[in-house]
Write a structure and sequence with these properties.
By secondary structure, the chain is α/β, with parallel strands linked by helices. The chain has a domain of 154 residues. 34% of the residues lie in helices and 13% in strands. The chain is built from 16 helices and 13 strands. Helix 6 runs parallel beside helix 7.
């Protein structure tokens, strides 16, 4: 006989399957076509929500112990609230990561498995999300910077300012725009502010920020690279400069809350959308890609100065924010509300955390699934034994001649790690306690058989419960064919980006 916990898990999994297929939602017989107003119920004195995202950087901040990057404003935010040391995005790509923040679902559950700029999209236009749910509950909704999830019509905004492309790095403008939105009305607000830093290109200085830029002699490359070279040092220095400029912007934005008298009644969440766009980071399931800084401040509701080591995922944002706003969730969600950690250690928490990868720009398909606990991590490569196009893409993007020379000088285990990324094995197992940068694969070592089998079984269980459309090998091959059939001879990237008409939302769950 199943225990109560198992029954609840099974029911949630069935309801999410129904949700993905477009059938009945599992709560109170509600359907996806039902207006949000029928299930959103809010309390009086609602809290304001400020969700701040930055781009393409890991926990290279002063409060996380980074030796080079000076981040006094973010350090202050951490002291005033709670800082998580084991926070992860669901997929190390801009659109999939943001889709999970906003829907509380994994990318393979909501459909945003790659970049929105390449027309990949959620399965359904009426997928409940933070914008739609909070707006229906009486919140003003605002967006500054990019949304990057399709279809954009699924995310109702009362206010929006995109502020240009990645060349725009004037963080004063984000703060001024946020002040305009906050002052417009006294109704409670949900505002998502999205900064460009530290997205590639790594801009050394913009509008006088940072005031004292770092140079290549001031830094060493990030340790998960495992490589060192003059160009990597220059790139790392400018990457740190981007983060320092971002920090100044966060300070300005915090000052806006103070000037508007909103500080004490605003829940502030800050994180990056994934790790650095460089070696063994973005577009992978390595820690350098999925592990991000996460800080939350809520005066009077969070004990300040906490540092929490629990495994936290961005699927936790939707239940956390809805709980803070006093709103019932629209459907069973896989995430956990973070409130139990706000004032001390929760009695129970997740033992396992899951991440994934599909594709990014539409031409680097390399599907992966990964699970980790407090010490060990297992990556499953669904296209094992084949050349990983994402490896070539990243190595070519980050100065191949300089990097190749550094790789020849690297220790043997680092060279092996890069070769595994180039042609992945079926499984990779890492001991994150003794090998935090994932250089030594333990999957074939007999002494780790118990850990390997335990994590493999948990990964399989999660994939079945989600459900994962790539459990069907035919879908893996079908998606691969679709990805590469879209690329035509003599295409340039801009032509490729304009090509719409993805079919995977139709066949992923056809059986």
């Amino acid at each position: 006989m199943k225990d109560i916990k198992t029954v609840i898990v099974d029911a949630n999994c069935r309801n999410r399957r129904e949700f993905l297929k477009g059938s009945l939602m599992g709560l109170a017989g509600l359907t996806l076509g039902t207006s949000c107003r029928s299930w959103a119920s809010a309390r009086e004195g609602k809290v304001n929500i400020l969700l701040i995202t930055s781009e393409d950087h890991g926990p290279q901040l002063g409060c996380y112990g980074d030796p080079y990057t000076k981040t006094p404003c973010l350090d202050k935010l951490a002291k005033e609230g709670i800082r998580f040391t084991n926070a992860h995005v669901t997929q190390a790509g801009c659109s999939p990561s943001r889709s999970s923040m906003l829907t509380g679902l994994y990318p393979h559950e909501n459909g945003q498995i790659g970049l929105a700029t390449h027309h990949l999209r959620m399965y359904r236009d009426d997928t409940p999300n933070l914008f739609s749910v909070l707006k229906s509950a009486g919140y003003r909704t605002g967006l500054i910077g990019k949304l990057h999830v399709n279809p954009e019509s699924a995310f109702p905004r009362d206010f929006e300012e995109r502020l240009g492309g990645f060349e725009h790095r004037d963080v004063r403008v984000e703060a001024a725009t946020a002040e305009t939105f906050i002052k417009q009305d006294d109704k409670p607000f949900f505002l998502m502010v999205n900064y460009k830093d530290a997205h590639d290109p790594f801009i050394r200085q913009s509008e006088g920020l940072p005031e004292h830029p770092l140079g290549p002699d001031d830094v060493k490359p990030l340790p998960h690279f495992g490589l060192d070279s003059p160009l990597l040092r220059q790139q790392t220095a400018d990457y740190c400069n981007c983060i320092q400029r971002l920090d100044a912007g966060i300070g300005m934005l915090s000052d806006v809350l103070d000037r508007c008298g909103k500080r004490d009644n605003t829940l502030v969440i800050f994180l990056s959308d994934h790790g650095i766009d460089s070696l063994r980071g973005k577009r992978t399931c390595f820690e350098g890609g999925t592990k991000v800084p996460l800080m939350i401040r809520w005066p009077g509701q969070i004990k300040p100065g906490q540092v929490r080591e629990e495994l936290v995922s961005t699927i936790d944002f939707m239940p956390t924010i809805l709980t803070a706003a006093g709103i019932s969730a629209p459907a069973p969600l896989p995430g956990l509300a973070l409130q139990p950690a706000f004032n001390g250690a929760p009695k129970q928490w997740r033992q396992y955390l899951f991440t994934e990868y599909h594709l990014h720009s539409g031409h680097n398909f390399n599907p992966q699934r990964a699970v980790r606990d407090s010490r060990y991590k297992l990556i499953q490569n669904l296209m094992h034994g084949q050349l990983n196009p994402g490896y070539t893409f990243t190595m070519n993007k980050k100065a191949p001649k300089d990097t190749e020379g550094a790789l020849r000088q690297a220790p043997k285990n680092v060279q092996n790690a890069y070769e595994r990324e180039r042609v992945p094995p079926k499984y990779e197992l890492y001991d994150l306690q003794n090998d935090p940068y994932e250089f030594d694969n333990l999957a074939e070592k007999p002494q780790y058989k118990k850990e390997f089998e335990r994590l493999r079984d948990e990964l399989e269980r999660w994939r079945r419960q989600s459900p994962d459309p790539l459990l069907n090998p035919k879908n893996v091959e079908r998606l691969k064919d679709e990805v590469y059939s879209r690329w035509k001879d003599n295409d340039d990237m801009e032509t490729y980006k304009k090509r719409d008409g993805w079919q995977y939302p139709d066949y992923f769950f056809e059986h």
